[in-house]
Amino acid sequence: MRILLVEDDAMIGRAVLDVLRAEHYAVDWVRDGVAAEAAALAERYDLVLLDLGLPKADGLTVLRSLRARRDTVPVLVATARDAVGDRVAGLDAGADDYIVKPYDTDELLARVRALLRRSAARGEPLISHKGVELNPATREATLDGQPLSLTPREWALLEPMLQRPGVVFSRPQLEQKLYGWKDDISSNAVEVYVHGLRKKLGADFIRTVRGLGYVVPRE
After folding, report:
1. Entry pTM
2. Which end of the chain is more exposed for a tag (fewer CB within 10 A), N or C?
């Protein structure tokens, strides 16, 4: 699951980032409203964790922009604005849930899980290619009808390639799928996960395009 964290406070942002990653979520962290809108346009997220008091563009502006273009990603507003009017404004703008700072991290995680379950219950189409089937709603995978065990990062790398067979993904593109933005990553991280997937799916399932990246062939 990939989460967009929108939080301008460095201390809160780092703490929330660590908590979410400890639960094996992939997290992109941005610190202003303009960056949040750009990220939401560039990536597909399973949930947005959104502060309201942001520089450049406030959280309500970001939220209204998401809903205006019919983006149905679940949004959990996390803010210090605790007045009833603020809660009503956030929910009316399209938030799915609202939590007030300071909050307990266990409650935050519970609300995240609840929104992700609710989103999964709406159902997403299965992704199938060459005997591999991914169910984004349940995060279950099969190979020729048999259960296939994938780590969270193997899933994050395989899912976009299965969605677009024949498209070559560069290493930087795949690194962005594996980790949150601006994270330190090892120079051979993509190669390590591709190697693991090849062991599970077959040596030719993911092919190397020299000088360009990796591709799941159409045929």
Report:
1. 0.68
2. C
